[in-house]
Amino acid sequence: METSFAPSKIQTKQIKHPRAWDGKNLTKDEVAFDLGPRHLEAFDRVIQEARKRSVTLENASDEDFQLEDIQDDVQLIADRILNGRGVVIVRGWPMARYTEAEIALLYWALGKQWGRPIVQSWKGDRLGYVTDVPHLVPGTRGKGFTSENAMTIHTDYGGIMGLMAIRRARSGGLSGLVSGMEIHNRIAATHPEYLAPLYEGYYIYWTGNEKKGERPINLDYRMPIFSELDGQVSVSFMNKRVVEQAVAERKEPLTELQRKALEYFHAVGDELKFTFMLEAGEALFVNNYAILHDRAPFEDWPEQERRRFLLRLWLRTSQEKQPVHSSIRRFYDTMVGNFSPSPVNVI
């Protein structure tokens, strides 16, 4: 039985906002924030304090590491993420100066200035390990971010998504970013009839992130791709695969309009994509309600210690900072509510 849930009103006007951009016209330097001596000194103080008090990710509290000395730039980066283009690449992390665990602690310390880290899976991890799991743990199967296969455009959970590159792959693995606002603009200008199904949304059936013996996530309501609140449009899209799985599970094929709208959404996204390599020592932060991301396939090193490795954060931002339609909040609350946080960050 379907739960009643009304979609938001459809925004038909062109979105005039810095978050609406064409990736072909964007460069990495334009979205970069380069760390300088002042920031590295603040990081040094964090690590020295952590070493002195034996603080690790497993026992760090919300009160630890407020980065008071660089709050002006911390807030500047947040403003660019929430109110600017919606993407910032923080460059110049001192990878050679600290251990990987200490780099992870610094990344966590910066990220939590902007929101609360939320659980990413049933394992309870609030700091996700993005690597090729089948090679790391023999006998396991990878999916999406835990495999070397390509990932199509999608959003994650929470208001801000972060990826910190510790090591890059042997070859491949380019990152892609797409402005959901510019996709919306292009659709409104060329095929406005596709907006209705994209606002109404699609059923999703998500396998692979449930505990053994539990049922996959099967929503009894449609998850909108676009939604609007107080004049602000948001985008939320897991990926095309979970929509196709829902069609098979429910035995309800998409209408021609639904199918064409979804195909066009992807086609426009590919056309507007900003593609770049996230290098070791760079941390990407994006507005998860405005920007979609993907990743090209890659070939990794045979040695485990050289393999591609990134750290992922999902940060929940307040409704005051980012007004988001209740359909998206409801979905994220449903997802995260199924998971219990763990003090230990696990793969």
UniProtKB/TrEMBL annotation:
InterPro entries: AlphaKG_dependent_hydroxylases, TauD-like_sf, TauD/TfdA-like
Highest taxon of source: Bacteria
One GO term of the biological process aspect: antibiotic biosynthetic process
Gene3D superfamilies, per database record: Clavaminate synthase-like
The TauD/TfdA-like domain, residue ranges: 62-314
SUPFAM superfamilies per the UniProt record, alphabetical: Clavaminate synthase-like
Record GO terms (molecular function): 2-oxoglutarate-dependent dioxygenase activity
Keywords assigned: Antibiotic biosynthesis, Oxidoreductase
Needed cofactors: Fe(2+)
Record-linked PANTHER family: GAMMA-BUTYROBETAINE HYDROXYLASE-RELATED, TAUD_TFDA-LIKE DOMAIN-CONTAINING PROTEIN
Protein's recorded name: TauD/TfdA-like domain-containing protein
Source organism of the structure: Sorangium cellulosum (Polyangium cellulosum)
